[in-house]
Write a structure and sequence with these properties.
Helices cover about 55% and strands about 5% of the residues. The chain is an all-alpha fold. Strands 1-2-3 form a three-stranded antiparallel β-sheet, with no helix packed on it. It starts with 10 loop residues before the first helix and ends with a helix. About 25% of the residues are buried. The model is unreliable at about 415-420 (pLDDT under 50).
């Protein structure tokens, strides 16, 4: 690929060159849009500091300081890392080379025994299989980050950990695993002090749930072409999320035995919590499911209700609900304004609507299948009307503070008197 040397590090020049290279290399429009979206985040970050020129140092600071891991998924964070590498390539006038996914880190032989004991401990504590697999991957990367001279974990110190955490890039799950593993070493008397306090703690602001009004949800559902087989399927999937608050993984896992048409109920074992959940269907949900099964579902021996639209018509993957929701949000032309567009946003909208109507938290918890009774309170943060009822009056200024603001108060009162006379 013919490359052009960027005359300077100006953001607009780099952006043009990035887009040009992606087009020349025949990246898809969707991939290019993802790159441009992340570049927009970089621009916003630098503009916040009054910077218009990009450097590698600014790129590294962006990955550390911008709330990528707390607001976005791990995959989006990895995409941001790749985008920064591409931008750095442009800055250094390098040709784009394919970046393969990070190779699996093999655990050093002398640490295998303690690694396995840590994983066994997690199993005994009831951690799920997917979590065990993730922890195994990250604890191996953690153990590989130590100098080869470290032959025993008893030799670990704050200095060694500091070098490990500053030398390599760490995703949030990796830091969580490192903290858990170091706590286990202390509890098992492998280390004399609890070194888990040395693990960096990135800020994790709890973002507000992405919710949509009843009118927006209705606009979304109305935009679906229910005359087509695919539309019948998508309509039923989105109704289950918007009217019953089911998770995407639970929706696509629905089988014929889960539905009792006589009692108009859906009874499942939830994928996430493994708890039994029993919900009553309204007429609209029941009719949508029946319409898809009778008039839109391909012939298949699978016991799963929702199938792919192309041969061999296999059951949908857990992520299909998110994909379906995003597609129809785009078709409906709903302005998301920074909100997420997946099936979980419909679930959050359903929960918020219940809380806003004054439904008790215990009932909302049961409807959503939450394990924690406090989980439903997460959605009250959107109910501004009820939050205002809890607001406290501003206390009168006292002491030194009152003396400091008194001239300003008098000035404000005088100004308001003049405006009143006018």
């Amino acid at each position: 690929m013919k490359q052009r040397k960027v005359a300077n590090s100006n953001l607009s020049s780099i952006k043009k060159e990035l887009e040009r290279r992606l087009i020349v290399m025949r990246y898809s429009k969707i991939t290019i849009s993802h790159y441009m979206k992340i570049f927009g985040w970089v621009e916003d970050y630098l503009n916040g500091y009054g910077e218009t020129n990009y450097t590698k140092e600014w790129g590294q600071r962006f990955l550390i300081e911008y709330p990528l891991q707390s607001v976005h998924s791990q995959s989006q964070f990895r995409n941001a890392q790749l985008s920064i590498r591409r931008i750095n390539d442009i800055l250094e006038n390098k040709v784009f080379m394919p970046y393969s996914s990070e190779s699996k880190s093999e655990c050093p032989a002398h640490f295998i025994e303690i690694r396995d004991k840590y994983l066994d401990n997690l199993i005994k504590r009831g951690y799920k299989n997917n979590t065990i697999i993730s922890r195994k991957r990250y604890v191996q990367r953690f153990l590989c980050s130590f100098p080869r001279t470290i032959q025993s974990l008893e030799e670990l110190s704050a200095v060694i950990l500091y070098e490990a955490f500053t030398k390599y890039e760490w995703v949030l799950d990796g830091l969580i695993t490192a903290r858990s593993f170091l706590s286990y070493l202390f509890e098992s008397n492998v280390t004399k002090i609890n070194l888990s306090v040395c693990v960096p703690s990135p800020r994790r602001p709890r973002s507000l749930p992405s919710i949509y009004s009843g009118a927006e949800v209705q606009k979304l559902l109305s935009s679906i072409d229910r005359t087509a087989n695919l539309g019948k399927r998508d309509y039923a999937i989105l109704l289950l999320a918007a009217h019953m608050g089911l998770r995407s993984c639970d929706i696509v896992s629905l089988s014929f035995k889960d539905i009792n048409y006589k009692e108009k109920t859906i009874e499942i074992i939830q994928c996430k919590t493994e708890r039994r959940l029993r919900l009553v269907m309204n007429n609209e949900v029941e009719e949508a499911i029946v319409d898809y099964i009778q008039n839109g579902r391909p012939r298949s021996e699978s016991d799963k209700i929702f199938l792919g639209c192309r041969a061999p018509f296999t059951p949908l993957k857990a992520s299909a609900g998110h994909t379906v929701a995003c597609k129809h949000f785009n078709f409906a032309g709903i302005a998301v304004q920074g909100r997420r567009r997946g099936a979980h946003a419909l679930r959050a909208s359903y929960a918020t609507a219940l809380v806003t109507k004054g439904v008790p938290y215990v009932v909302v918890q049961e409807a959503l299948g939450h394990e924690d009774p406090e989980s439903a309170k997460y959605y009250v943060r959107i109910d501004v009307r009820r939050l205002r009822m809890c607001a406290l009056d501003v206390p009168k200024p006292m002491g030194t503070f009152a003396v400091m603001i008194e001239p300003k108060v008098r000035q404000t009162l005088s100004s308001s008197d003049v405006e009143g006379e006018l």
